[in-house]
Amino acid sequence: MTETQKLINDGNRAVDEMLAGIAAAHPHHVARLDHAPRAIIARHGPRPGKVAIVVGGGSGHEPTFLGYVGKGLADACAVGNVFASPPPQPAVDAAMAVHGGAGVLFLYGNYAGDVMNFDMASELLEMEGIEARTVLTTDDVASAPAGERDKRRGVAGNVFIFKAAGAAADLMMPLDEVVRVAHHANARTYTMGVALSACSLPQTRRPNFDLPAGQMEIGMGIHGEPGVRRGPLLPANAVADEMLDAILAEMKADPGDEVAVLVNSLGATPLMELYILNARVAERLAAAGLKVHVTLVGPYCTSLEMAGASITLMHLDDELKRLLDHPCDCAMFRAG
Amino acid sequence: MDFTTDDLKALFAALAARMKAERDGLCALDGVIGDADHGIAMEQGMAAASDAVAALTEGTLQDHFNAAAKGFLNAVGASSGPLYATALLRAGKAAGPRPAMPRTEGPLLIVAMAEGIQTRGKAELGHKTMLDAWLPAANAAQAGASFVEIVAAADAGAAATADMIATLGRAARLGERSRGHRDPGAVSAAMIIAEFARAFA
């Protein structure tokens, strides 16, 4: 099979070379740790008495997770190999570097490897006398039925959930409150994706799954996990409708309620197509009587060069609205 | 002749060599039901474990297993990292703070490793994971079976995963489509158990 085309030097060094480039590009926002090259910490934000927010997971989803490290959002992140959880040590090192004596919240998507490694990181931190808690993001509507929310994957909705928890920590809320906010934000965030083509790992350079030309897969995960339906590629409005129908059916919003919208590229899909999707999203939300408080459009949680997109809605209340509006300043994201 | 820390260094060197040799085959198996990196993770993990024990100039069997666990975990992460790190820590506890152990106690290490993997991963028999090789091997070991029988149990367990539907981990995404393919984690587990058998023979 022909190898996919990538601008890399060596698949085994891709993650570390990327990190070197990120550190060089964003020296005012992030720093690396000498003893933990796969941990990134915020230059500004961590401080005494503040709950430390540590996010992380596999590489290949940029700007998730690195892009959300900065004042008002995450204090640090640990990343692993492409699509693979980091081991516990970088997460521990990151947490040790940014904790301010008020405890650490590990915040990441619900994947088996991440759960095991971050659980071990929590155990190691507790041995150092640092209180550590975990909240898993589970916003991917397509990955399990509504009754089994705890089995769902965490995907692009991470952006809103991290943002809300990061703001809560920046406002100096205590650990229990930051944990409550993270659970609350997660419970009100819904995402669904569609894939139009496969991605490929730098080390294998072969498509991660087979999706024939002219086909799409609705509900696909960000590592190529199969979705809920495969079929001929439909016009953007029909695709947006199918994803929104699933999200709105669960969200149960009343007319007049406010939402935050994210139309996210999985990597290869350009802004033109994202804005076409968003035009339909805006039309549908208006028809349902829902008010859009904020809209993000762009690559926020990607899957290497996968073509496709996801739509996320966060069902806002006064608290979440205030937290989303709270200023943050990260290498690849800014608010307020 | 007892099993010494030098024997353990040789075992980890053999494990590293075996995973290097099997890397592409394991990746191909994983390519069918996962994201094709299991062979890379096992190669990196065992190479790091082997390097870590080779660097020790003194210490007990438990110290060596602990160093291997840490080396494997820090090299890999993912799912196999915590699972094998926990397994190796448990093996170290079973081997104990002593410079050597009777070879007849070797099967107890398999029991301890399987328990560690089950505790960390919370899988059950039949979930189409590495545990489907580890548990039958551990059950055989606990029943007093020889290492030849333990390896046969692991091989049979790995082969049986072809008929199972994955419910955990990345392969779970395939559901029914995962049937018909052996679980790469179970296949590499049977290889590891075979190397333990060779080392304790």
TrEMBL record, chain A:
InterPro entries associated with the record: DhaK_dom (IPR004006), Dihydroxyacetone_Kinase (IPR050861)
Transcription keyword on record: no
Its EC number(s): 2.7.1.121
GO molecular function: ATP binding; glycerone kinase activity; phosphoenolpyruvate-glycerone phosphotransferase activity
GO terms (BP aspect): glycerol catabolic process
DhaK domain span: 10-333
Keyword Magnesium set for record: no
SUPFAM superfamilies: DAK1/DegV-like (SSF82549)
Entry keyword set: ATP-binding, Kinase, Nucleotide-binding, Transferase
GO CC aspect terms: cytosol
Listed name of the protein: Dihydroxyacetone kinase subunit DhaK
Organism from which the protein derives: Segnochrobactrum spirostomi
Underlying gene: dhaK
Automatic annotation (TrEMBL), chain B:
The keyword Kinase is assigned to this record: yes
InterPro entries for this protein: DhaK_L_YcgS, DhaL_dom, DhaL_dom_sf, Dihydroxyacetone_Kinase
Top-rank taxon: Bacteria
SMART domains per the UniProt record, alphabetical: Dak2
GO BP terms in the entry: glycerol catabolic process
Residue ranges occupied by any DhaL domain in the UniProt entry: 6-198
Residues annotated as signal peptide: none
Gene Ontology CC terms: cytosol
GO MF entry, a single one: glycerone kinase activity
Annotated keywords: Kinase, Transferase
Family matches, as Pfam families: Dak2 (PF02734)
Keyword Transferase: yes
Protein's recorded name: Dihydroxyacetone kinase subunit L
Organism: Segnochrobactrum spirostomi
